[in-house]
Task: structure prediction
Amino acid sequence: MTEAPAALLDRMDEASRRQDTPCGDGTMQWRSWDQTGGTGPILVLLHGGAGSWRHWVRNIPDLSRTYRLVVPDLPGLGGSAMPPDGEDANAVAGVIAAGLDAVIGGDTPYHVAGFSFGSMMAVCLAALHGSRVRDLTVIGSSAIGPLGSAIELLKVRHLTGEARVEAHRTNLSRLMIADPARIDNLALAIQEWNTQHSRLKTPALSRSGALMRALEHVHVPIRGIWGEFDAPANPRAPERAAALRLARPEADVHLVPSAGHWVAYEAPQAINALLLRKHGALPQTPPG
Result:
């Protein structure tokens, strides 16, 4: 029997180690998963806009066998409080950086990967922490290259019951997941919870140019990953890959076939394999 989404998410949550750090008038929530017995390197995973740690639900079990995973709810999203300044990307990143210092120690090295809005936070974090960051992976970034396509999403807050579920299904299909058959009950449950707890206005931050400015101060290996059918990037996903290579010619760039924006959920094996290998160990996928 397939495990119910709520039971699976509760079980994963209970298996994590919870820590809280200051954030505005409240706290920022951090969860860690570690099957290495404390011997693995640290990988920090930063989720997307209107998201939470649940964006990584299909990656945590495999990755935690190799890494000590540190996965926060970003400020103003999920279970974390609003940051003191939610209109400045660097200020939000500063809250994350201070929290991470408290969670893992102020001089501990780590790897970091960010999805969508989380990719901008990952780059800003890497700019703040410098050589402590071993490498940086940006996944489905909307802040690199040309502006993406405008995507009209359905409003759900006034809906209930099956109408609300179907609105979530439509929004996931339009924005997040390329293959409608992959929009399962778990994806719908995650979308519902994340929508209820989203307060930070991430689209404006993503359009602020903060990622590209921060990237100028990042001098660690960088990998860029987009789904072939990433809705915010299409039809210009190859231009995003090219823009990253223009800024960082050595960047390790991949387009994951047949996947959409939430590629870590839709194609978890591909993302896990990329995050588990060292930079440059496999041939690059050409953008196009």
Remarks:
- The first helix runs from residue 5 to 15.
- The chain has a mean pLDDT of 93.
- The chain is about 35% helix and 15% strand.
- The longest strand covers residues 26-34.
